[in-house]
TrEMBL record:
Alphabetical keyword list: ATP-binding, Coiled coil, Kinase, Membrane, Nucleotide-binding, Phosphoprotein, Transferase, Transmembrane, Transmembrane helix, Two-component regulatory system
Organism per entry: Agreia pratensis
Catalyzed reactions per annotation: ATP + protein L-histidine = ADP + protein N-phospho-L-histidine
Keyword Coiled coil assigned: yes
Entry's EC annotation: 2.7.13.3
SMART domains, per database record: HATPase_c
Keyword Lipid metabolism: no
PROSITE patterns the record matches: HIS_KIN
SUPFAM superfamilies: ATPase domain of HSP90 chaperone/DNA topoisomerase II/histidine kinase
Coiled-coil stretches: 168-198
Protein name stated in the entry: histidine kinase
GO cellular component, one term: membrane
Gene Ontology terms, MF aspect: ATP binding; phosphorelay sensor kinase activity; protein dimerization activity
Family matches, as InterPro entries: HATPase_C_sf, HATPase_dom, His_kinase_dom, Sensor_HK_TwoCompSys, Sig_transdc_His_kin_sub3_dim/P, Sig_transdc_His_kinase_ChrS
Length: 406
């Protein structure tokens, strides 16, 4: 058995759905029980109208049960509304006819009250309740005479039905609002998750861009410079050494690329640590490009691999800037730590520049390498500073608290 719906629709997964199902089931059971009471009364206390009462009561039960079929058959909301109104009118007329035959049918007005409110809405439903109450009172007065119970009973029933029905509708509206709010929250959560995923992708892209800039790009730049040097070599002194260094640099870059695929840890750090990796670069790639780099980093200093990787990349980017822009002859890389914090410094004796002026015109101070270094240091919770003056070299300094990356 089912009821055709009107305005109030409930989402299938609402937390209050069991309550609504229970109320509807109780209404169906109440209607069937009261109709059965009319039939039993007609059979137990036979009269000349008993046959008609039983037949009409059964017809009323069948018509009531057809309500669910009517609701499912109608495809559109307007058709369901029209079919529901026609169905309600039919069972109301059958109830009035049954009420004309037996006063026991007056009890059926109570479940009808809820149907009126559910299908006709607050105002038309209330009007229908008033009319049905008047019909029930008149029928009881005609059949058994006018009594206080015959008048007060239907009036009290109508009042209770109004209170319960209106409360039911308020509960339904609240459930619908909560369901809409839940759907909105789920949609917002989905958008937030998508935004976080997008942010993670962008952060990963930026990280890879920094890794590639500080390793592959700088290495390829070194290869290019070495090969140019080989091309310009004195014919009597073939550029075999330059070519060898270019090949070694290419091999290093290939190792870096493979390491990116695995875990983005620099190959030199696995065996040599930060100090060994910097000294290898100083004696090989950097020296071949004409820069004498002094490394003062103790191999006994134990730092997390994440921090060693970041400092190595910062040094590679800074030295690449020195070679390309500063025209320096010497540079020094040092690491000082007291167990609580550390200071990583790259100093060169190059041409220097005005950091404020460079920032204003988007020049060297704002180069991608330095920008990437700032991002690395920011992620580690440290501070990167650049000190430079024209003609007096440049100092790049990184200050970090070890506890921030422990």
């Amino acid at each position: 058995m089912g009821l055709p719906t009107r305005k109030v629709r409930f989402m299938a997964h609402s937390a209050l759905t069991p309550v609504f199902v229970g109320l509807r089931t109780g209404l169906h059971v109440l209607f069937a029980a009261l109709a059965a009471l009319v039939i039993v009364r007609a059979v137990v206390v036979p009269s000349e109208r008993s046959g008609a009462v039983v037949a009409l009561a059964i017809l009323l039960l069948v018509s009531y049960a057809l309500g669910g079929v009517v609701a499912r058959a109608a495809r559109s909301h307007s058709r369901r509304r029209l079919a529901g109104s026609a169905w309600l009118a039919a069972i109301t007329l059958e109830w009035i006819a049954l009420l004309w035959l037996t006063p026991e049918a007056a009890y059926l007005v109570f479940p009808l009250f809820f149907l009126y409110l559910h299908l006709l809405g607050r105002w038309w439903g209330s009007a229908a309740i008033v009319i049905a109450t008047g019909v029930a009172i008149c029928a009881l007065g005609i059949h058994g005479g006018w009594t206080v119970g015959g008048v007060v009973g239907p009036l009290v029933g109508a009042g209770v039905a109004l209170l319960i029905g209106l409360g039911y509708q308020a509960l339904a509206r609240e459930a619908q609002q909560r369901e809409a709010l839940m759907q909105e929250l789920l949609a917002t959560q989905g958008q937030l998750a998508a935004t976080e995923r997008e942010s993670g992708v962008l952060a990963e892209r930026a990280r890879l861009a920094r890794e590639i800039h500080d390793t592959l790009a700088q290495g390829l730049s070194s290869i290019q410079m070495l090969l140019h040097a080989a091309e310009r070599a004195d014919p009597e002194r073939p550029g075999v050494e330059h070519i060898r260094l270019a090949r070694e640099t290419a091999a290093d870059n290939l190792a870096e690329a493979r390491r990116f695929i695995r875990e983005l840890t620099p190959p030199d750090l696995d065996d040599n640590g930060l100090g060994g990796a910097l000294r290898r670069l100083a004696a090989g790639q950097w020296q071949a490009q004409g820069l004498d780099v002094t490394v003062r980093v103790s191999d006994s200093v134990e730092l997390p691999m994440q921090l060693q990787t970041a400092l190595l990349r910062i040094a590679q980017g800074a030295v690449a800037n020195v070679i390309q822009h500063a025209h320096a002859s010497t540079a020094a890389i040092s690491l000082e730590t007291d167990g609580v914090g550390l200071r990583f410094t790259i100093v060169d004796d190059g041409a220097g520049f005005d950091p404020q002026a460079a920032d204003a015109r988007g020049g060297r101070s704002d180069s991608f390498g330095l920008k990437a270094a700032r991002e690395r240091v920011d992620q580690l919770g440290g501070v990167l500073s650049v000190e430079s003056q024209p003609g007096r070299g440049t100092t790049v300094r990184v200050d970090l608290a070890l506890e921030s990356i422990a």
